[in-house]
Amino acid sequence: MSLKTNISIIVPVYEEEESLPELCDWIGRVIAQMESITYEIIMVDDGSSDNSWEVIQALAKNNPSIKGIRFNRNYGKSAALDTGFKACKGEVVITMDADLQDSPDEIPALYELIKSKKYDLVSGWKQKRHDPLNKTIPSKIFNGVVRYMTKIKLNDFNCGLKAYSHDVVKSIEVYGEMHRYIPVIAKWAGFKKIGEKVVAHRARKYGVTKFGWTRIITGFLDLLSIIFVGKFRKSPMHFFGTMGALSWLIGGLMTAWIIIEKQIQLYILKMPFKEIRDIVEQPLFFLALTLLIMGTQLFLAGFLGELISRSSSSRNDYLVKEKLNLD
Fold first, then answer.
1. Among 143, 141, 131, which residue's Cα sits nearest to residue 208?
2. How many structural domains comprise the chain?
3. What's residue 137's pLDDT?
């Protein structure tokens, strides 16, 4: 089934009433310069307490290409993007923030990279940023760590301006605070042609930034979660079993050493029994015991993980790219 919409533009909105009319006008002017392009703008109001929804309603009334989704409360950017992904119909899907710091002038080039160069995902890189230090410094640290741990060579994972093929957004699920790791999620799903484009970044015109130092902590926790889930979702025993076996091995070696050491002292060195420290009085004994208990617990965690994984309704969900001669 062919898609009738060329471009879907998804805009998460949280208390950005002042910027929305200008953003929509700007997008409209850019799309109008592209030849024979149909588009939709999906604005997802993430529980704004200002007049953002009223502004979206007014804009949609005058332009049928503008569509709106409103959450009952604030769920976060990941929820807004995931909802937009489910609703969109475009061959190419572009996400951007509502604060006018992402430039709609980048839309034609991003569209061509997906359509002509056949990228699965293209991430924007705000090489020159107009943000305060409390936003740029955490971002640099965060991007360096994510790049090292995931082996995805992107300079700006946090950039809200990204372009995706239709298949990518319909194959992934974004939840929690995982919007920062959409390239990682896409890679785990098998979409490996991931590119980057330097994009213009504008100074904030309205409102205040909603991010800061706190996201660096939650961001790293989310990174560990997504790496673990990506590698071991189908086989948790591979992780817990390996850690359990390692813990048992070290604990077992320590236990053997304690026993052998005492035998050497008794029968080879002929030390008086009263001068030999009892096994349970040695710190190494308690460390060995702790490691053996941890190993057992890790094995049990692995078995429970396998039981949960195999009883899951999605245990055999695999992404199929193409089919031949099948109904």
1. 131
2. 2
3. 74
Q: What does the pLDDT read at residue 1?
A: 43
Shared domain check, 307 and 175: no
> Do 155 and 129 form a contact (C-beta atoms < 8 A)?
no
Instruction: List all residues 6 or more positions away from 151 whose beta carbon is below 8 Å from its beta carbon.
Output: none
Contacts of residue 5, Cβ cutoff 8 Å, sequence gap at least 6: 38, 39, 40, 88, 89, 90, 91
pLDDT in tens, 101-135: 899 999 999 999 999 999 999 999 988 776 666 66
**CATH code for the domain of 112:** 3.90.550.10
d(CA 114, CA 120): 7
CA dist 179 and 158 (Å) reads 8
Task: Count CB neighbours of 35 within 10 A.
Answer: 4
Q: Rounded CA gap, 169 and 326, in Å?
A: 24
> Which residues are within 8 A (CB) of 312 and not within 5 positions of it... i.e. 6 or more apart?
none
Which has the closest alpha carbon to 3: 65, 89, 86, 67? 89
183 shares its domain with 220? yes
What's the whole-number mean pLDDT along residues 225-241? 79
The number of beta carbons lying within 10 Å of the beta carbon of residue 36 is 5
Mean pLDDT of the chain: 85
CA dihedral 207, 213, 215, 217 (to 10 degrees): -170
The angle formed by the CA atoms of residues 258, 263 and 265, to the nearest 5 degrees, is: 95
For the chain, what percent of residues have pLDDT higher than 90? 46
Task: Tell me the per-residue pLDDT of 157-199, one tens digit each, with 9 for 90 and over.
Answer: 888 899 999 999 999 988 877 888 899 989 988 899 999 999 9
Domain span at residue 173? 5-232
> What angle, rounded to 10 degrees, do the helices at 20-32 and 107-115 form?
50
> Cα(7)–Cα(23) distance, rounded to whole angstroms?
16
Residues 89 and 166 occupy one common structural domain: yes
pTM for the structure as a whole = 0.75
